[in-house]
């Protein structure tokens, strides 16, 4: 049977007797969004925000290494096309439709990657059982477009320093 885990003030841990993983939920029962990382098209870290405790804390240098490493692995996986998809009778697959890693899942978290047409990558760390991650990612991208890209003082490919984006992003993630 499942073991008892003490509850915490901001979240509760639940253990299912049918699963080997522990689920973390907010007080209202919703699944947890841990963190967001935004990587520019060159692989540089331009934004990082933690929303919830649960993942190990990393230093800024570790986040920079993570961004660069993920960018490289994403590029390599994008170039890997299964040979079953490429035959002499099928037309070639357009380069724009090839994608790299979209989801990386472990027993304790799920990393979801959304890459924009311009090459910016949004990495969202959530609970493995988090439903509707695509809806969350789409809303985060809308907030980014509204508050960062429309900001006349923002320079492309530079770190995101926009209070309105931070405020609306935190409000959205905590309210959903």
Keywords:
disordered N terminus, alpha+beta, 3 helices, 176 residues, 7 strands, 5-stranded antiparallel beta sheet
Tell me the span between the first and last alpha carbons: 32 Å
Helical stretch tally: 3
Biggest sheet statistics: 5 strands, antiparallel
Strand content: 15-25%
What integer value in Å does the Rg equal? 18 Å
- Global structural class: alpha+beta
Shape: globular
Mean pLDDT: 80
Detail the poorly predicted runs: 1-24
Number of strands: 7
Portion of residues within helices: 25-40%
Q: In what order do the strands lie side by side in the largest sheet? A: 4-3-7-6-5
**What is the N-to-C succession of helices and strands?**
EEEEHEEEHH
Describe the structure in your own words:
With 176 residues, the chain is of the alpha+beta class. Helix content is 28%, strand content 22%. The protein has helices at residues 60-79, 133-149, 163-175, and strands at 11-15, 22-26, 33-39, 45-50, 103-105, 110-115, 121-126. Strand 3 and strand 4 (45-50) form a beta hairpin. Helix 2 (133-149) runs antiparallel to helix 3 (163-175). The longest helix is centred in the middle third of the chain and has 20 residues, at 60-79.
